[in-house]
Amino acid sequence: MTSRVFMHKQISIQACAYVFLFVWMYVYMCLGNVEYMYVCICGRFLHDMFMCTCVCVFFVCACVCFIELCDVYLKYYANHFCIICEYIYVCVCVCVCVCVCVWRERERERERERERERERERERERERERERERERERERERE
């Protein structure tokens, strides 16, 4: 009986960690702008490494909760099924994580490309302005 109570407490702690990390990742993925609060402090690379660590902890907690819930509630005969489900779950989670990382990197690249295009457009505009100024100078010299 004691081990069962211990298992339930352990699952409760893991479930709390799971919910906390889920909320954190929800805020990170959906609000996006939150990242700028601390990107300035630790830089883009450390920021991404930190978030990847959070994602990994999140998925590990989810897997552990899932396995232990299977062990506690479905008993021994379901263990093999739970392990297969765990592998499927982990594969799906890793794929989602990789897709999100790739998508975010592509978004950053698009933003950098848009910024370069804006800079080129400003440079062309400055060049046109200089050309107009030269034309005016030539007109003044002729007069």
UniProtKB/TrEMBL annotation:
Keywords: Membrane, Transmembrane, Transmembrane helix. Residues 107-143 are annotated as: Disordered. The chain crosses the membrane at residues 12-34, 46-69, 81-103. This is Uncharacterized protein. It comes from Meganyctiphanes norvegica.
